[in-house]
Design a protein that fits this description.
2 strands; two-stranded antiparallel ribbon; mainly alpha
Length: 363
């Protein structure tokens, strides 16, 4: 089935005269190909996960240490940028942790939390049990989706605000763990507020997190306790070695947060108005930025350059997504629905979303 056939298979918005995302029917041939062509893929390889994560963390922390210890401005900026990019890659393994089977990589979640999640005050509980809601077929793109906002349908000023607010992320995380967690241990109302409003990596301001259950509950306890202790140690260090090291670290994490927010901005087209969508519609509202370009591997690492494909196969390990993409592209061919989710790069996507915010809206 071609892209045009997929769209016209659904109904159209009678007011605008063009198909809406919610009206797009499923391309069964594409869904069947995604299943049949990737049967031999899908096993998470521990050697790849551990090597990639450890190398990213080591490079990131080494560059951060250099930025703190050296005092030449250009070297500080250069090393800070290297640290931000490397730690960004290490941090994005939180996405894989939210999807991989609990028995697939023994010890990886714990190791990642101790090496990356806790030091960056972004432990895995802030994504586990939240991100999977984004993949629920009946929730994606609706008001119950923690990771969706119709950004393309909002005001033009919403886009720079969406990106700029990420600058405050490290300060907000430090405040959460150093102040709100210990206060919450004493005051139940603070604890409830912290959990429902400030314990999820979400972009939907209406999202309220439900209480942790099952295996997640004890993980939350130890991760919050370690996060609180680490936040106190960071603040206490300023009394012994001054504020410069912490401020540089916060600046590096701010760059990482802004880069992640830019990636989030172009992870979808954000064109749904809150209606439930088919799997194919969700796929077309998501973004692939496949090769030959290499820059996308920097701003969308750990498989996230294949974000649309990820929405077709959420449990596929990141290291198998390039091969899955090659097989589907070869089998389905140009002009197919599959190619409708492929885009050339971040600049093109930002421009598309920005243009969409400037279009006049009908009541």
């Amino acid at each position: 089935m071609t892209m045009q056939q997929t769209i016209t298979a659904g109904s159209t918005d009678q007011n605008k005269g063009k198909p809406t995302l919610a009206s797009i029917a499923d391309d069964k041939a594409m869904l069947r190909a995604a299943r049949d062509l990737t049967r031999d893929l899908g096993a998470a390889r521990g050697a790849i996960y551990w090597t990639d994560m450890l190398a990213s963390a080591i490079i990131g922390y080494a560059a951060l240490a250099g930025a703190i210890l050296l005092h030449q401005p250009l070297l500080v900026v250069a090393l800070g940028l290297v640290a931000a990019l490397a730690l960004y890659r290490a941090l994005l393994f939180i996405h894989e942790i939210s999807h991989i089977h609990r028995d697939a990589l023994p010890g990886f979640r714990l190791g990642w939390n101790l090496l990356v999640g806790i030091p960056l005050l972004t432990p895995s509980f802030m994504y586990e049990g939240v991100h999977t809601l984004h993949h629920a077929r009946t929730r994606y793109g609706t008001r119950e989706d923690p990771e969706y906002l119709p950004l393309a349908l909002m005001k033009p000023w919403s886009l720079p605000l969406f990106v700029a607010i990420a600058l405050l992320a490290p300060i907000a995380l430090l405040f959460r763990f150093a102040v709100l967690v210990p206060l919450g241990a004493i005051i139940p109302a603070v604890r409830r507020l912290t959990w429902t409003r400030f314990s999820a990596l979400s972009i939907n301001p209406d999202f309220r997190r439900r209480p942790a259950e099952g295996e997640l509950k004890p993980r939350v306890l130890y991760q919050e306790a370690l996060g609180m202790i680490w936040a106190w140690l960071l603040l206490a260090s300023t009394q012994m070695i001054g504020w410069r090291p912490l401020l540089i670290a916060l600046a590096v994490v701010s760059v990482t947060a802004v880069l992640n927010q830019l990636r989030t901005l172009v992870a979808h087209l954000w064109e749904n108005e809150g209606e439930p969508m088919t799997v194919t519609a969700q796929f077309l509202d998501s973004v692939n930025v496949p090769p030959p370009g290499v820059v996308a591997e920097i701003w969308a690492p750990v498989g996230l350059r294949y974000h649309a494909l990820h929405h077709l196969m959420p449990s596929m390990p990141y290291h198998d997504l390039p091969e899955a993409h090659r097989r589907l592209a070869r089998e389905l061919g140009d002009g197919s629905t599959y190619f409708g989710a492929n885009h050339p790069g971040m600049a093109t996507l930002v421009a598309r979303i920005a243009r969409s915010t400037m279009r006049p809206r009908q009541p």
